[in-house]
C-alpha cells in the first residue's frame, strides 16, 4: 500500500525541507567516515588491541586511537559527535575489555602501544 506525502499531511515545502535535512545528515556522515578512514591507525595497532579482546567495536577502536594520540575526552567527544561523559564511560569500558590492571592508565597504555610497541612500527 503506497501512501503519498500529502496523505501524511506533509506539504511540498515540508517535503523539500525534510529531504534537505536528510541530505545534510547523510553528507556529514559520509564526510566523517572518509575522514576517519584516512586517519586510521596502523593495522597492527588494531590487531594488537583485537588480540586482547576480539569483540572490540569500531567505536572502541576509534576511541582507542584518539586516546593514544593524546586527545582529551572533550576533544574526542567533539571529534566523534558524542558527549564527554559518554567518552569517559566508553574509556572505562574499554579498559575493562582490554583487561588492564587498576594501576595502568588506559591513556598511557594506548599511547605506548601506538608509539612503542614493535608490532605498530612502520617498516
From TrEMBL:
Q: Which Pfam families match?
A: GerE
Parts of the chain that traverse the membrane: 12-32
Xref: SMART domains: HTH_LUXR (SM00421)
**GO MF annotations, alphabetized:** DNA binding
User: Matching InterPro entries, A to Z?
Assistant: Sig_transdc_resp-reg_C-effctor, Tscrpt_reg_LuxR_C, WH-like_DNA-bd_sf
Q: Which GO terms describe its biological process?
A: regulation of DNA-templated transcription
Q: Any idea which UniProt keywords this protein has?
A: Membrane, Transmembrane, Transmembrane helix
> In this protein, which residues make up the domain named HTH luxR-type?
70-97
The name this protein goes by in its record: HTH luxR-type domain-containing protein
What is the originating organism of this protein? Phaeocystidibacter luteus
Amino acid at each position: 500500500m503506497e501512501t503519498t506525502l500529502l496523505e501524511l499531511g506533509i506539504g511540498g515545502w515540508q517535503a523539500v525541507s525534510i529531504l534537505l535535512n536528510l541530505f545534510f545528515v547523510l553528507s556529514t556522515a559520509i564526510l566523517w567516515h572518509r575522514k576517519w578512514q584516512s586517519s586510521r591507525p596502523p593495522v597492527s595497532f588494531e590487531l594488537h588491541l583485537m588480540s586482547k579482546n576480539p569483540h572490540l567495536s569500531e567505536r572502541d577502536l576509534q576511541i582507542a586511537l584518539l586516546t593514544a594520540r593524546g586527545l582529551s575526552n572533550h576533544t574526542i567527544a567533539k571529534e566523534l559527535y558524542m558527549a564527554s561523559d559518554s567518552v569517559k564511560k566508553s574509556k572505562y569500558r574499554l579498559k575493562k575489555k582490554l583487561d588492564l590492571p587498576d594501576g595502568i592508565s588506559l591513556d598511557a597504555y594506548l599511547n605506548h602501544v601506538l608509539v612503542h610497541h614493535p608490532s605498530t612500527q612502520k617498516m
